[in-house]
Amino acid sequence: MAELTTLARPYAKAAFEYAIGEGELDQWSTMLALTAAITGEEPVQKLLGSPSLTTAQQAQSFVEVCGDALTDQVKAFINVLSENKRLPLLPEISALFDTLKAEQQMSVDVEVTSAFELDSATTDKLAKALTGTLKREVSMTTAVDSSLIGGVVVRAGDTVIDDSIRGKLSKLAEAMNS
Predict the structure, then answer these.
(1) What is the number of structural domains in the chain?
(2) What is the CATH number of the domain that holds 77?
């Protein structure tokens, strides 16, 4: 995984710098997400792994699959990736691009898992608290996991806050066994 990130990082940075220079962060993010999704499809993976096609043919076929959803600049980016045999890295490039975008916009995607469905007032209050704690604009999604018993688990990037009953019981069990 680290190797894929290392290979994808220069391409993501280049795309990000171009997009920010042109004021097209959201458009590039959308287009890269589309290309990443298309890359994951089995027929496209076969196309990218085909030894009978040149890199130019692979790029052209890939762009044709995307249809009119890509700008000329993104098509050129796809051609560069193809020439360097890096088209399979598109999912990683898209993820890194979105991370750079979130840092630029001082925002973070947060996933909150709770034992029960949260009402909108609780969700709003939690979002405000997380915005203050993380010092970023919070985009929050919620999920329900009844095995938590009670409380919540918050995931924001690499940060995990486990304030669930199950988590507290696990910590207590570890402390007692130590």
Answers:
(1) 2
(2) 1.10.520.20
Three-state secondary structure of 64-133: HHHHHHCCHHHHHHHHHHHHCCCHHHHHHHHHHHHHHHHHHCCEEEEEEEECCCCCHHHHHHHHHHHHHH
Q: Cβ of 91: how many Cβ atoms within 10 Å? A: 18
Q: Is the pTM of this model over 0.70?
A: no
Residue entry with tokens 């999604």? 141
Question: In terms of domains, do 64 and 112 share one?
Answer: no
Task: Give the range of the structural domain holding residue 26, as residue numbers without chain letter.
Answer: 2-103
Segment 113-172, tens digit of pLDDT: 998 999 999 999 999 998 888 888 888 999 999 888 888 999 987 788 898 888 888 888
User: What is the spatial distance between Cα 94 and Cα 79, in angstroms, rounded to a whole number?
Assistant: 16
CA distance 79 to 56: 7
Regarding whether 99 and 20 lie in a shared domain, the answer is yes
